[in-house]
Amino acid sequence: MTTAVAPELSVSEWLNSDTPLTLSGLRGRPVLLHVLSET
Prior knowledge:
This protein is largely without helices or strands. The chain has no helices and no strands.
């Protein structure tokens, strides 16, 4: 089985966080992403 690293997120605004989050900073932690999109 091969694995791949997810690309970093290009997010302009984070909710409930004073600093931008990176996937590398969250490595080893459970992460749930909820994506909102305005059309």
